[in-house]
Each structure stands twice: as C-alpha cells, then as structure tokens.
Inverse folding.
C-alpha cells in the first residue's frame, strides 16, 4: 500500500459547510482557528477517545465516519450515535468539564481536526452565533436522547430494528444499486444500535427477509421495500 | 426597582444567572411571575405553544412525553433549582413534552423573549445553559443504557435510591409519595413487576408499602442489593 502525506485542511476552504464552526465564523476567525488546530488520521477501528478520559479539545470530522458508544456492565457495547463529516465529537464532555461519557471509534479511515479546549470555549464566549448554534445542537441531542429512551420503553423490537436499519442507511448511504446499505455491520452492531440482543436481531432480520422487506447477503443488507420499512419503523418526531 | 428585587435575588441563586449582571436581569423581568401549581396540575402541556421557561422553587414535577396522553412515558423528575422548558428554547414553536406537578409546586415563570435575551446577551449564562443541557442528556442516556444492560430489579432499586436522593431536599427523605404507575414507567417496567420487587423487598423489611407511599427502612441494604443484583 502506498501511503500519501495529507496536508492539514484549511477551515476556510473546508467543504463541510454544515459544520456549526464553519458556518458561524468569518474568514479571519476561520484563519485564526486553522492556525491553532491540529489534524489526525484515524484508521478503521482506531479509538479516538475513551469513555472516562478527561477531554482537552474538540474533534471535528473532515471525512470518514465515527461511532460513539458506551460500555455496559458486562463489557457489552451500546452505539449511542453515528457522526458524519462536519459533525463534532467530544463537545458535551468539554462544555460540562466532565470526563467523556462514551468512547468514539473510527468506522472507516477518518480525518479529524482537533481544536484545543480553550480556543473553542473562548470562541463560544465571543461569538454569539456559535453559542446559539451549540445550544441548538445540544437541544437536538436532548430530543434524540428522549426519543431513544421512549423507543426503548415503548417501541416493539421489530420497530426498533427497522428504525436502526434506516439510521444506518442514513449514516452510510446506499451503494450504486440504490438499495444496498453501504456498510458492513455485524448483527451484534445492528443490535447495539437498536438496543436489542444479537439473537433477537438475527431472528428479526430473518423475519424481514421472509417478508421480502430486505435481502440478506452475508453482512450486506439490501432494502427491497423501503416504504414498508419506513412504515414498520413507525418514526415519530 | 424594589419590587423586582425578590426576582433578581431568586434568579441570581440559579447557576444559570449567578454571573449575569443585575442590570441585564432587571431589564428582562417584564412578564416574570411566580406561579403555583396544585398536585396533578399541568405546568406545561405537550404540543402547546412554547411561551417560556419555569424555574422550580418548591415541589417536584414529572416530565412526560409520548404520542398522546395515554401512551406517554416519564422522562425524568424535576426538583427545586432546576428549570423546565429549555429543550424547547431554540427554534421550537411548541413544547415537546408535558410537565405535571406531583405535589404543590411553586415556580418562577420567565417569558420566552426574556429568556432568549438573557441567554444571548450573556455568554456565561449561555455556557451554563449548555452545561444544563449536557447534564440532562447524560441523565437520559444513562437511563437508556440501564434499560439495555441492567435487570429490571436493578433498575427499580436504582430508581428508588435516586428518588430518595431527590427527596433528600425535603423533610422525609425516605418516604416516597410517588404514584406506582409513574415509578414503573420511569424504571421501564410494568406495575405488576414493580409490585413483585416491592413485595420481595418488604419481606426483608428493607421497605414498607402503604396506600400513600413507599417507606425505605434500610437504604444501605437497598444499595447493597442494587449493586450485587444480577
């Protein structure tokens, strides 16, 4: 394999326009930010930070995908969320000045910018728009957490697994056939997203297959009937 | 100005506004009022228009959320010092949850525009609000994790312990006057299973169930069982 040196990205020319940092700062602020940040490449499966460690900075994903996951008492994993390019990692621990409440792992080769804690906090203090966008991001996180616990308490397993498949599709996208989810996840990982055991995940996916909602090809999942899957997920906001 | 002083004093006691200059506070007190709620009164109704936030001064309220009233779950309890409505603060036209007083509850209501003005004009308040949101998210994610990994009995015991801690601010920290349906909902179990756990614990005299309340007789023992239950 030939490795190639990657130059640190410039915030001003970054194409992740959705990032709250990029859309809340002017050119000179972005140039200033670019000077203080550092940049790292994480390989697939590499841990970005561990649950329980103290945060010292903010991670901003340039490219690639990351899962945020929590360990259970028995060493099991629960996937809390996926983060895509433009998304931030570690901001809650940073803002609340607490250790990380979850770990983050690269799901594929991922490029991440790292902004020192003080620079981020100072920017929030002086930039009202960034401050409001951060609050908005947190209220969205709160709604997502509430929705997740309601799902766990109220939604049947079939609905939760259907929703997990849609979430994974949303994060990874589809392959060229516009049907196959562009990700290779184990049944256990799908169960971790839905909050059900691996055995239940295997059984439910088989049911979906028998009902011709999906087609299973090893670890690949092809969605044959999207409207039925959406209906099954019974997504409410 | 003197009639505003109690409100300013009250708001300054809250971490959200303790660093906020008095001049900003006093400019934003129009419409701020004390509102009391009786037991079972709705403080906020889900889907009603968002018009402000409530600071809890006294009493306890539950936050519930769901598709409709008959199909809703308790998200959490709120106690004195906490505020309700922040999750609807930005870009929300309606409250996305209901808040119901579980006992006589006194609140300080602050209209949406004032709250917005106070937070946006004071970076320390904005940072404090972020901390509050982070803490609320953590509490919910922790409970979600518990639903996934802990046994039902463990969840019930942990909930009873946390309700004792909530009650710790009152007169009788070990007497829990909560509805059993609510406790079951918060623990993510059925009322029948909750009864089963309570009966089991009352046989060992760890707690006593009466018509009105659950009395925790041996908190240390309850904690021990919770930690060693598998």
């Amino acid at each position: 394999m030939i490795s190639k040196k990657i130059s640190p990205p410039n915030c001003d020319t970054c194409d992740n326009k959705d990032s709250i940092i990029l859309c809340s700062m002017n050119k000179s602020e972005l140039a200033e930010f670019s000077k203080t940040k550092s940049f790292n490449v994480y390989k697939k499966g590499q841990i970005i930070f561990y649950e329980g460690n103290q945060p010292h900075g903010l991670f901003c994903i340039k490219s690639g995908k990351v899962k945020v996951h929590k360990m259970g008492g028995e060493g099991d994993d629960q996937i809390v969320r996926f983060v895509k390019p433009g998304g931030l990692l570690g901001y809650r621990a940073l803002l609340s000045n607490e250790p990380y409440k979850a770990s983050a792992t690269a799901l594929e080769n991922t490029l991440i910018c790292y902004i020192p804690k003080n620079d981020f906090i100072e920017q929030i203090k002086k930039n009202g728009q960034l401050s409001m966008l951060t609050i908005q991001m947190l209220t969205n996180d709160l709604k997502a957490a509430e929705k997740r616990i309601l799902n766990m308490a109220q939604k049947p397993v079939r609905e939760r697994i259907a929703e997990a498949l849609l979430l994974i599709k949303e994060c990874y996208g589809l392959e060229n056939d516009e049907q196959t989810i562009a990700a290779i996840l184990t049944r256990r990982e799908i169960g971790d997203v839905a909050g059900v055991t691996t055995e239940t995940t295997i059984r439910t996916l088989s049911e979906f297959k028998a009902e011709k909602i999906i087609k299973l090809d090893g670890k690949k999942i092809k969605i044959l009937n999207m409207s039925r899957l959406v209906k099954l997920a019974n997504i409410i906001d | 100005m003197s009639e505003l002083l109690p409100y300013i004093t009250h708001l300054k006691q809250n971490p959200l506004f303790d660093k906020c200059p008095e001049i900003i506070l006093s400019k934003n007190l129009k419409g701020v009022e004390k509102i009391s709620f009786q037991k079972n009164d709705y403080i906020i109704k889900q889907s009603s228009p968002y018009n402000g936030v409530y600071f809890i001064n006294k009493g306890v309220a539950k936050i519930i959320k769901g598709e409709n009233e008959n199909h809703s779950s308790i998200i959490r309890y709120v106690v004195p010092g906490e505020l309700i409505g922040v999750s609807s603060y930005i870009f929300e036209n309606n409250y996305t949850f209901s808040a119901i007083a579980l006992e006589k509850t006194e609140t300080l209501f602050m209209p949406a525009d004032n709250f917005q003005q106070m937070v946006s004009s004071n970076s320390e308040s904005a940072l404090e609000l972020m901390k509050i949101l982070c803490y609320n998210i953590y509490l919910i994610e922790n409970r979600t994790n518990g639903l996934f990994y802990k046994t039902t009995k463990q969840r019930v015991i942990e909930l009873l312990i946390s309700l004792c801690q909530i009650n710790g601010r009152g007169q009788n920290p070990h007497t829990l006057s909560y509805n059993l349906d609510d406790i079951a909902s918060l623990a993510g179990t059925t009322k029948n299973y909750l009864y089963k756990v309570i009966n089991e614990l009352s046989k060992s005299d760890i707690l006593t169930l009466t018509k009105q309340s659950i009395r925790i007789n041996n908190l240390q023992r309850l904690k021990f069982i919770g930690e060693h239950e598998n």
Observations:
- Chain B touches chain A through 41 residues (CB under 8 Å).
